[in-house]
Amino acid sequence: MQTSQDVLARRELDRLTQQVPQEPAGWANLGLLLLRQQQLDDATVRLTRASDLAPRSAAIARLQALAEGRKGNLDASMRHWRRAMELDPADANAPYALAQELERAGSPANEAEAQRLLEGLAGRTGNLAAELEYARLAAKRGDAAALQRALEALTRKSPPWPEDARERLNAVRQSASGNAASAATPVIFLKNVLLRSGEYRAAFAAVSTPNSEVGEPLDRFIVLPTPPPQPAAADEQLTFSAETSPAVPLPSAVWAGVSWLTGEGPPVLLAAAARELRVGSAASIPLPAGALLAGAGPDSVVAVDLNYDFRTDLVIAGTGGVQFLRQN
Length: 328
Known about the structure:
Elements: H1 6-19, H2 24-36, H3 40-53, H4 58-70, H5 74-87, H6 93-105, H7 108-125, H8 128-140, H9 144-157, H10 163-178, H11 184-194, H12 198-207, E1 255-259, E2 268-272, E3 276-279, E4 283-286, E5 301-304, E6 313-318, E7 321-325
Antiparallel strand pairs: 1-2, 2-3, 3-4, 5-6, 6-7
Helix pairs in contact: 1-2, 2-3, 3-4, 4-5, 5-6, 6-7, 7-8, 8-9, 8-11, 9-10, 10-11
């Protein structure tokens, strides 16, 4: 499901729910798959079954809230978000999503509750995205005291921001000094500038689910026991012998390792010097001057499939920063 192999995912999830119908995670993930495919009614049926089996699962309540929101049932969506908050008070997604749904529903009472939720979330987590939404909603409602508290928190975070973001924050402060409501649009401009920053994107990811993914799958059983690890007994007869490899003639190497570049064939020997990475005998990749591997340790290069294409990519950490190498 996470690699968009929906046909395979549907077959396996159907098989899971047939073989172990008492496991809520199977029904929940099947409901999520259908939700992503816009089969909203079928998704709701599966998620309801999951909730009946695990009524105290905050993860399932969040999926139910998403499903009802997609169907336009705001009251039901908000009810499930509140339930998720009750079941998992430490969760940051539920209060942020509930605040959005309350504002979407309209009315002064709903907007006041949304503001309280965002204030609590921002105060509890210091999340930049929540603080910006709190400031925007306080300005929209003309709540000068709340806007001032929000601006104080944003000011404390602002020293490392880009210059244009700090200028936008000053514009918000100037607008708020006269009339709190007039600061609503400047707050939106500030948010638009910060959208480009990694700090904001990380903060937003911590309180929301990407629209492209629509919800988070359950990756643990709820009812079934998790199988215990059962490692094989140590093979005390296993030995290794060191030998020189002609495939990677890199005398100045500061790191070496092996990796399977694809799912087939033998592994490939990798070696990295301060300015060069060797991949077997097939490729020599120069490293940029800012990503030197001087003083490299055993964790300087990591082999990982970053984009789920079944080809091994490499991450290199050097004294000047981090470099990602994607295998094409």
